[in-house]
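Lab manual, section 2.4: Encoding a predicted structure.

Procedure: take the sequence of the chain (129 residues), apply the prediction step described in section 2.3, and record the output as structure tokens. A sample record is shown.
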Amino acid sequence: MADPLRIRNSVQGYQYVTAGIGEEEAAQMKRIAKNYTLNLLFSEGVVGRWATDVNVNIYDEASNLMFRIVDAKPVLYVNLPASTYTILANNNGNKLRHKVTLVDGENQKVILNWKDFVDEDVPLDGEGN
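Recorded output:
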């Protein structure tokens, strides 16, 4: 049985939880998704394998750091107030940027995929072999 999820507060004061490795943990995360305004999913490669140990910074429109986490698991839920944010995510030195607008009473899901940065997805001979 999976350990209970650890709900935490960021340095900036926003509630978050990160997990999602293994079927039980992923199921627990799915049950609480609607409790968070922002649901982030991290994957890599064309096939979309889970990405772990992702560093995430979230900035408001005035470029103020609103949330930061080092080594996030594949699923990260954060409760941020309604506004527009820029998400900067770093996976093994490869960065992605995404802009998102959160609305009161709604849950926003964002999938960040580093499909171009995984060597295992590149065919060895260029012909899929």
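Check your result against the sample. The first strand starts at residue 8 and ends at 9.
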